[in-house]
Amino acid sequence: MAIEAGYMVPHPPLIIPEVGRGEEKRIGATIGAYQKIADEIAQIKPETVILISPHSIMYRDYFHISPGVRAYGDMGGGFGAPQVSREVVYDQELAREIERLASLEGFPAGTKGERDPRLDHGTMVPLYFVSQEWQNYMLVRIGLSGLSLKVHFMLGRYIRQAVDKIGRRAVLIASGDLSHRLRKEGPYGFCEEGPEYDQKIMEVMGSGTFERLLEFDEDFLERAGECGHRSFAILAGALEGLDIVPEKLSYEGPFGVGYGVCSFCGRAKDPYVALARKSLETYIRTGEAMEVPEGLPEEMLKNRAGTFVSLKEGGRLRGCIGTIQGVQTCIAREIIENAISAGVHDPRFPPVMEEELGNLTYSVDVLEEPEEIDSPKFLDVKRYGVIVSKGFRRGLLLPNLEGVDTVEEQIAIARQKAGIREDEEVKLERFEVVRHK
Predict the structure, then answer these.
(1) pLDDT (tens digit per residue) in 249-298
(2) Under the phi-then-psi rule, with left for phi > 0, alpha for psi from -120 to 50, and beta for the rest, what region is 241?
(3) What is the three-class DSSP state of 175?
(4) Are 127 and 35 contacting, i.e. CB atoms less than 8 angstroms apart?
(5) Cα separation of 390 and 384, whole Å?
(6) Chain mean position to CA 301
(7) What is the C-alpha to C-alpha distance for residues 337 and 276, in angstroms, rounded to an integer?
(8) What is the pLDDT of residues 35-44, one digit of tens each?
C-alpha cells in the first residue's frame, strides 16, 4: 500500500451552501473540481486521508500532528453554519509512525503542543466534499510551520515513508488558497505579485514540476499573500518520484482570492508491474515470497516465459535479474521470483531496504522465444535483445536500453556479462520483449 493520489485544493468556507447562501454559485468550477476529486477518492477507497491545513495549529519551528482518537468540528463560529459538522477518527498508528521516523533524525514534527482539538475550516471544507462520496476513512491532520520550504518538502518524505512502512492505502490533500491579493475591491486589496503568483503556481502544479516549488522567493510569497504554498511543498515531498499524472482541474478568483484545484493520481497499474512491486514489498516486509494472487490476466497464469524485473531509484538502476526462459509454472510466478532476486540478490547492488520501497520504479520484460541468427546484421538494438553463448557461458542484454546505441555495443556488453573474450567465436540469438512499466 502507498499514497495512491494527492490533491491541491482551496478551502473557502462559502463554497459550502449553508455558509455561502447562494454565493457559492460564483465558484461553480471549483465545486465541480471538488466533486471530481471526491469521486476519485471514492474509487481509490483509502484507509486514511492525510490532510495538510494552514489553519491547524502552527508553530514557528515545529510541525504539529493532531493527537488523540477522534476530533470534531463544525462551521459555526464566524461562518454561521453550526449544522455543518464532522466527527473523524484519527489514524493513531500512522500519526505515531510519522512522529517516530521524524524523531529518529531529529526532525521537528510530532503530536505535542495541541492547543485546540477542533477541526479547522482548512480541514472541514475538503472533508465536506470527500465525505459525500467516501466515509470509511481515518484522518491524519498536520499543520504547517515557519520553517523553510525545503523543510516542508522533507516532511512530505517522512509522511510517505511512514505510509509505506505500515502499509496504508492513503491519499494526501494539501489544503490552501492561492493569493489573497487579486483584486482592489477584494477583502485584502490588490498587489501585482498576487496574479503573478497564481499564474506561476498553477503552471507548476498543473505540470507536476514539483522541484520548482522550492524556487519561489519567500519575500515574493509574502507580497502575494498566498495561503497554501507550504501545504503544496509537503504534498510535493510526499509524491516525489512517484509515477503520477498531474491534472489541472480548475482555477478561479472572483472574490479576490485565488482558488486552484489540481489532481495527482497514480497511472493505471499494469498488472505485471503491480505484481513485481507487491512481490518485493511482501518479501522485504515479511521475509516470505507471496503466493500468486487472484484476479490476474489469464496469460499470466497459463503461459510460461522468461522475464526480467528491473528496479530504478531516482532514475538510476537499482537491480535487474531475470530468466531467459520460463523456469516457473507460469509468468506470474516467474515475476514474483525475479522481483525478489532483483531487489535482494543482484550482486551489483546491496539489498533493497524497507525505507527505499516507496522510491522504486519497476519495469517487467517478458521475453519471447529466442531464435538463432548467424550474423549481427540481423540485430537491431531497439527491437531485439541478444544472447551471446560459448559452451555453458551465456550472456543476455535486453533491447532498447539507455546508453546502448549500436549492435557492436550490445554484443560487447553481453560478452562481458558472460565472461567471453572478444576473440572467441560465439553463438548469437535474438529475441523480442514485451515491456511493462
Answers:
(1) 999 999 999 999 999 997 767 899 989 999 998 999 899 999 998 889 99
(2) left
(3) strand
(4) no
(5) 20
(6) 29
(7) 9
(8) 999 999 998 8
User: Regarding the domain delimited by 3-266, which CATH topology (the fold level of the hierarchy) does it fall under?
Assistant: Protocatechuate 4,5-dioxygenase; Chain B (3.40.830)
Q: What is the DSSP string of 37-103?
A: HHHHHHHH--SEEEEE-TTS--BSS-EEB--SSEEEEEE-GGGSEEEEEEEEEB-HHHHHHHHHHHH
Q: Are 65 and 141 in contact (CB under 8 A)?
A: yes
Extract the C-alpha cell encoding 252.
478561479
Tell me, what's the pLDDT at 225?
96
Chain segment 349-396, per-residue pLDDT in tens: 999 998 888 778 899 999 998 899 999 999 999 999 999 999 999 989
User: How far apart (Å, rounded) are the C-alpha atoms in residues 272 and 437?
Assistant: 8
Instruction: Determine how many CB atoms are found less than 10 A away from the CB of residue 305.
Output: 22
CATH superfamily to which 271-436 belongs? Hypothetical protein ph0010; domain 1 (3.30.700.20)
Nearest alpha-carbon partner for 119 in 156, 152, 70? 70
Give residue 69's pLDDT.
97
Cell of 155: 516532511
Mean pLDDT of 215-235: 97
Domain residue ranges of the chain, discontinuous segments joined by +: 3-266, 271-436
Q: How many CA atoms lie within 13 A of 332 on its CB side?
A: 18
> Residue 268's pLDDT is what?
66
Q: What is the residue whose three cell numbers read 522510491?
A: 359
Radius of gyration of the chain (CA): 26
